[in-house]
Hints:
Blueprint: H1 10-39, H2 43-50, E1 55-57, H3 58-69, H4 72-82, H5 97-120, H6 122-130, H7 133-156, H8 163-189, E2 194-196, H9 197-217
Antiparallel strand pairs: 1-2
Helix pairs in contact: 3-5, 3-6, 3-9, 4-5, 4-9, 5-7, 6-7, 6-8, 7-8, 8-9
Amino acid sequence: MHSTHISPTPRVIVKQDAAGARLNWLLAANQQAEERRKLFRSASEEEQMLLMRRPVSTRQAYALFGMLLGALPPAAIFARMLGYSDSPQSRLGSDMSELFFLFVAMNVVCCLVGWCVGSGLARAALKAERSSWLKMLHTMPLIGAAWGGVTGLAGGFLFFGIGALFGAAFAIPVGAAGFLIFALFHRLLERGGMIETRHFLPLACGITTVIAAFILGI
Length: 218
């Protein structure tokens, strides 16, 4: 006797394909729901995010904050070194013009590197904000210190190489304090990873200005 192989009918194949498609759709829907649950801490957060007129993403927020933190506090340090906070007689003279332009170049490098590093650390910062308050208080200074180390090394390297060590020494405490304070308020104000521009600008500018003023007042 010869055995015959009966292939699946087209109807069976169609049913199997439909079942597989429904399964894939359910898996994708569950994954999307899980991601939304992680993104929004409450049901009203999504609605509040959608009502924002000029939202700023977490990556943009930390990039811009890193840029400001890399601009104002170093400028205050350079001003102190050049004597701007002392008596008028000790202010910048013509014989120090080369040093002035060197400080300007260092400030520009700190600003640009601060922007890039802040953008790169945004995901780690958001993860820290999503954790418990206690864990965030321990994590954010480390993230800020990493920002300060890279930014300070890059900016200080222009000062004949040896300035990289001093740049990192100045920038690490500034980054640790600045990122921690910024994260505390950003966590309270962000909705679904977005923060309103009218909340972000006073926050970022205020923190960096206060740090710069503190440096000038030391």
